[in-house]
Design a protein that fits this description.
Elements (H helix, E strand, L loop, with lengths): L1 H16 L5 H8 L3 E6 L2 E9 L3 E6 L4 E9 L2 E6 L2 E12 L2 E6 L9 E5 L14
Antiparallel strand pairs: 1-2, 1-8, 2-3, 3-4, 4-5, 5-6, 6-7, 7-8
Keywords: Signal
Length: about 130
């Protein structure tokens, strides 16, 4: 039990040492951009951020879904009517790089690098939106 707690504390420490982005910083940084979320150079998904804290998400190979985001304490939380639940993340900077970690991630899950995409979302299907 003690070893498990020590491992958790050691793996949680890097996030605790970071200064998390505020909702205002996140909004200023993300609004009007399409961002890629990647681990080890592999893009897991992309999102486009709009005014009014609206967002359009596209996981790799999946359809685009519209939603919104809000601040909950230090977390940025996303709600998508097409997906059950609230999905909260922490965002912070490591130098010039922005990284993100879902609050639901296991302690050994690496954070995702968030970078500006080189192309807009490629939404497929009948409900692609504008």
């Amino acid at each position: 039990m003690r070893v498990g707690i020590l491992v958790w504390l050691l793996t949680a420490q890097p996030l605790a040492a970071q200064t998390l982005m505020t909702a205002e910083e996140f909004d200023d940084w993300s609004r009007g951009k399409t961002l890629d979320y990647a681990v080890d150079g592999q893009i897991l998904g992309s999102e486009t951020y709009f005014a009014g804290r609206r967002v359009r998400d596209a996981d790799r190979g999946g359809p685009c879904i519209d939603g919104s985001w809000f601040a909950d304490g230090e977390a940025i939380c996303f709600v998508y009517p097409a997906i059950a639940g609230v999905h909260c993340w922490h965002y912070w900077r490591e130098g010039e790089t922005v990284v993100a970690q879902p609050l639901s991630a296991a302690p050994d899950t690496p954070p995702q690098q968030v970078t500006e995409a080189s192309a807009p979302l490629a939404c497929t299907g009948p409900d692609v939106g504008v």
